[in-house]
Amino acid sequence: MTTDVLVIGGGPAGMAAALSARDNGADVVLIERDKRLGGILNQCIHPGFGLAVFGQELTGPEFAGRYIQRIRETDIKVMLGTIALSLSKDGTAVAQSEEGIQEIRAKAVVLATGCRERPRGAINIPGTRPAGVFSAGTAQKLINCCGYLPGKRAVILGSGDIGLIMARRLTLEGAKVEAVCEILPYSSGLKRNIVQCLDDFGIPLLLSHTVTRIFGKDRLSGVEISKVDESRKPIKGTERRIDCDLLLLSVGLKPEIELCVDAGIEIDPVTGGPYVDDRMETSAPGIFTCGNGLHVHDLADYAAEEGERAGKNAAEYAKSITKNSALAVKCYKVRAGRGVRSVVPQYVSSGEALISIRVSEPVNNAELLVLSGGDIIKRVKKLSFTPGEMVRIPVKGITSDVTVELKRKGVAAGG
Questions:
Q1: SS3 content of the chain, % helix, strand, coil (to 5)
Q2: What's the CATH superfamily of 2-115+254-324?
Q3: What is the pTM for the complete model shown?
Q4: pLDDT tens per residue across span 97-107
């Protein structure tokens, strides 16, 4: 099979990319490993989606439904239940479905592969392996899609947005959430979710705490939690047991990059996703990426908007004569300065770009400075910056390498 643009992944970013590529004159094939489009949106039945893209508040399935309906009105070839097994630098993918294995050759590829949760094995909690230990996303799917309540008395480790949302969801289903434990001295979720999902339901958030032991043989019977020091090491003598039959892990998300590795694409060790330019193109010519497969987003709307840019530029690449990757001839590099943990894109090929950043730690009464050639070309002032919030900065006037740094109380953060 051949096509102009192949989009891998049918979540918000992938659907937006496919529609954008089609709107820009490309023939498009969209493959999705699930039996329906929508990705993670299908299990996010809470509101909070769509304000940026559609101008109204929607649930996850409603948000997905808007894109699905638009795709049905086009000639985009959608292949559901199809897994991309490999991807080469020339845009050739090998995919498997119930019909067998087939090769798809594309002039341009958009990777919208999403992200995955870190499992228990990634954080090395001592103890047995009883039933009742789940990632927060798995528990969300069990409740919202399958109708199962995985436990009645819960402890949640990690205060990411999924963990916070699941604290509320479990409470609404009649379960008792004993505590949300966070190893950091601040929450990694959005402020609005802390208020709406914990404070409004009287659920305690224990900062600088972690789970240090799991109890139970066949079924989870409890966990041990401990305070941690500044090095995130448990403090001896602070241990206490909480009886529970459910432990949810909300300990971070990682972009799915297996196909990127296949294609030899350069990976940013900070974001966990590929290096890209302002066109969302990777180091492999003609391979673009967007959404949570590039860097973890706090809003699906932003992932979809990123997908639109990737799809548009993939379509233009498929129709172009010049096939060099923009990264290969890049003029300007974007760097994370003091107080900033990550930046996307990492390269800019023109005088303007939309730069997404995350700060390293919570800061109040501060401003972000964007510098090019030593000159400040953009200021973003806010009462507070938190690591859980992605800040997007439209920037113009780029004439050399760019640095984004955080400044507070007259001094640069970290200075």
A1: 25, 35, 40
A2: FAD/NAD(P)-binding domain (3.50.50.60)
A3: 0.92
A4: 999 999 999 99
